[in-house]
Design a protein that fits this description.
This is Retrotransposon gag domain-containing protein. It contains 10 helices and no strands. It has 2 domains: 120 residues; 150 residues, no CATH class. The relative contact order is 0.06. The protein is mostly helical.
């Protein structure tokens, strides 16, 4: 009987514990069931959004500050870019002008080269004809002297008065006569020293040569053609410098004539080599400056 009573007490104690646990669980369930789960989620989202907004606002403020600092540099860079674009446009125009100018100069050079080749062919033809005549020529010394006298008679016309293109001053007839007399002696000595038949034929051909090169100093490449022309004549007829420089007053025209008169008065008689150097120093530099000024 005592065992039965103890068992009954133990059963009551276990049942009480279960009831207590149930009461606690029920109380907790009743307590938390009063909250709305949507409200909890909304509250959490608002808190998260608020935090994100604050973080983003700070980041945006930093970006705005950085842009404000960079903006002057962007403006300066744009200005520099616009200036560079304008300069590139100008340089492009200048480049096109230079290309066009170079094309014209190339065409002119080709034309001059063609003229030079043509002149060489004519000179070679003339020389061959002269050689043929020299081989077949058996004229006597008297005939040769008659030809020399004919050349000497035209010498006075080879020297023009100093004031022909200078504009002022009257030539001294005595000076001109002395100069022509000296030239006659030089021509006579020159052709007398040659082999009779050769001297006779050269004198004849020289007398026929009416179109000597002329130089005005106004063409860009005229000085080159003038120098080449004189060199060829000197070589073809084997002329001494004096026989060429004596005709300079008829070779030079316009501004080149005035330039020649000044140099002749300052330096007197000079060799053809000396005059070539002066012509190149004067007109080669002028031609170079003309190219640069035209290009830019």
């Amino acid at each position: 009987m005592l065992r039965t009573i103890r068992t009954s007490k133990n059963d009551n104690s276990f049942g009480n514990k279960i009831n207590e646990q149930y009461a606690i669980i029920k109380e907790l369930t009743d307590k938390y069931s009063k909250f709305n789960i949507d409200d909890i989620i909304e509250t959490r989202l608002k808190q998260a959004i608020s935090t994100i907004k604050e973080d983003n606002k700070k980041a945006l403020d930093d970006i705005l500050k950085s842009f404000t600092e960079v903006k002057p540099h962007i403006i300066a860079f744009k200005k520099c870019f616009d200036t560079s674009k304008e300069e590139i446009s100008k340089l492009t125009i200048k480049l096109n002008e230079v290309i066009s100018y170079n094309t014209k100069q190339t065409e002119l050079f080709n034309e001059l080269t063609y003229k030079e080749d043509d002149h060489k062919k004519n000179v070679i033809t003339s020389i061959k004809g002269l050689q043929h005549e020299l081989r077949n020529s058996q004229r006597c010394n008297n005939s040769k002297m008659n030809d020399i006298e004919q050349l000497l008679n035209i010498l006075p016309r080879m020297s023009t008065p100093l004031n022909q293109n200078a504009g002022t001053g009257i030539p001294n007839p005595q000076v001109i006569d002395i100069e022509n007399s000296q030239l006659k002696n030089e021509f006579s000595t020159y052709f007398h020293n040659l082999e009779p038949s050769i001297g006779q034929e050269l004198l004849k051909e020289l007398a026929k040569l009416k179109k000597w090169p002329h130089f005005s100093g106004e063409g860009e490449y005229d000085h080159i053609e003038f120098i080449r022309g004189i060199d060829m004549i000197k070589e073809d007829f084997d002329l001494a410098d004096r026989l060429v420089t004596a005709r300079f007053k008829t070779f030079f025209t316009k501004s080149a004539h005035r330039w020649y008169i000044k140099l002749r008065e300052a330096h007197g008689h000079q060799s053809w080599t000396w005059w070539k150097t002066q012509i190149i120093n004067k007109w080669a530099n002028d031609a170079s400056r003309f190219k640069v000024e035209t290009a830019f």
